[in-house]
Every structure is written in structure tokens, then in C-alpha cells.
Design goal:
The complex is a heterodimer. By secondary structure, chain A is mainly beta. Chain A contains no helices and 11 strands. Helix content of chain A is about 0%, strand content about 55%. Chain A is globular and about 40 Å long. By secondary structure, chain B is mainly β. Chain B starts with a strand and ends with a strand. Chains A and B meet through strand 4, strand 5 and strand 9 of A and strand 9 and strand 10 of B.
């Protein structure tokens, strides 16, 4: 079993929909949680960074962490075609080594 | 802030030649740099971790004599693929960290070995 599980998708939604992306993990020591967005043939871009449990909002993006369930989510409101990309969750406990999920490919159709 | 560049963005080389890829942190000092490779529709695979002035730490299965990593300064790391072969063709991505928990990624280098 992988340390971090993420549904690969693809997830296809119409423009304007609310998107929910999720990861589950097994290592209870993880405390720092990140979401990266990766466009095709580009490097990942850091979207959200959360410490421990709780919610964090930035514009149309909301990150949620539920450490008791070992479950993290990224919500995208009013999704746009430009949001079409692969979304990677990543996490760590100490230091800066990251454990990545496999990524979810999102397609937002106009 | 937190901008990481890579050069070149793409390279095509003949089998048996060596290719050097540069990774630079443009607006911060990177105590640690990471090198990943990524095959199509797959996630990132960590190859090695390097700290400035130290030898790189390679992940299991990654040949250190084939993938030479130099981290000579707090803003520059290089990856040299020696005696490249077609199976080395991939997307190579570096990331940099200033000691906090996040990593900031470069735009990637697409290597094609003929």
C-alpha cells in the first residue's frame, strides 16, 4: 500500500462546477500538507500549504485537512477550463522531503 | 517570490553523449535541491537530494555514476546525465527548498536521447 493514495482520474467536470480532489495517507506523523498544480509538460506549482488540521482558503481554492481520518481535500469553486491540469497532493512531517500522491488529472469543459 | 529556473527547457542528444541540466533558485537561497524524473502520465519520482557543499543522496535504484549531481552554491545545482541512452529520455524536474517544508519546482527539462 502506498503511503499517499490519490485517485488518478481523469475527473471531468463542466465549467463552473465545484471540484473536490482528495488524498488519503497512512503515516500519522505527517503534519504539513501541500497541493501542487501541474500543467502538461511543466513543473508543479505550489497552490496551497497547510499545517496540521483545519481549513485554508485562497481565492477559489480551499484546502482541508482531517488528521483524524488521514484525509485531505482541495476544493475548487467556479472551476474554469484553465484549471484543467494534474493536481498532486504532497506531505511531510519534518524537514523538506515530500511524499507525493500519484496525482489526479482534472478536465474542466467549457 | 520563490522562483526556480531550469536550463535547458528541452534537449535532444545522441546516445552515448552527456547532458548537463542546470537548476537555479532566482530569489532565495536553497539549502536543499531535489532532482526528480517524471514519465508520461506518472507522478514525480525522486532521484536524489543535494545540500549545498555536500555529496548528493541518491534514492535506491538511481545510479550515482550515471546521474552526477553538483550543488556548488546556494542557488545552483546541476544534473549531468552521463552516457545517455534512449531509456534515459524523460522529463527531469528540480525543486528547491529554503529549509522550510515546501519545495518550489522548476519548469522541467525534457530530455530526448536518440
Amino acid at each position: 500500500q502506498k503511503e499517499v493514495e490519490q485517485d488518478p482520474g481523469p475527473l471531468s467536470v463542466p465549467e463552473g462546477a465545484i471540484v473536490s480532489l482528495n488524498c488519503t495517507y497512512s503515516n500519522s506523523a505527517f503534519q504539513y500538507f501541500m497541493w501542487y498544480r501541474q500543467y502538461s509538460r511543466k513543473g508543479p506549482e505550489l497552490l496551497m500549504y497547510t499545517y496540521s488540521s483545519g481549513n485554508k482558503e485562497d481565492g477559489r481554492f480551499t484546502a482541508q485537512v482531517d488528521k483524524s481520518s488521514k484525509y485531505i481535500s482541495l476544493f475548487i469553486r467556479d472551476s474554469q477550463p484553465s484549471d484543467s491540469a494534474t493536481y498532486l497532493c504532497a506531505m511531510n512531517n519534518a524537514g523538506n522531503m515530500l511524499t507525493f500522491g500519484g496525482g489526479t488529472r482534472l478536465m474542466v469543459k467549457p | 517570490g520563490a522562483v526556480v529556473s531550469q536550463h535547458p527547457s528541452w534537449v535532444i542528444c545522441k546516445s552515448g553523449t552527456s547532458v548537463k541540466i542546470e537548476c537555479r533558485s532566482l530569489d532565495f537561497q536553497a539549502t536543499t535541491m531535489f532532482w526528480y524524473r517524471q514519465f508520461p502520465k506518472q507522478s514525480l519520482m525522486l532521484m536524489a537530494t543535494s545540500n549545498e557543499g555536500s555529496k548528493a543522496t541518491y534514492e535506491q535504484g538511481v545510479e550515482k555514476d550515471k546521474f552526477l549531481i553538483n550543488h556548488a552554491s546556494l542557488t545552483l545545482s546541476t544534473l549531468t546525465v552521463t552516457s545517455a541512452h534512449p531509456e534515459d529520455s524523460s522529463f527531469y524536474i528540480c525543486s528547491a527548498s529554503a529549509g522550510a517544508h515546501e519545495q518550489f519546482f522548476g519548469p522541467g527539462t525534457r530530455l530526448t536521447v536518440l
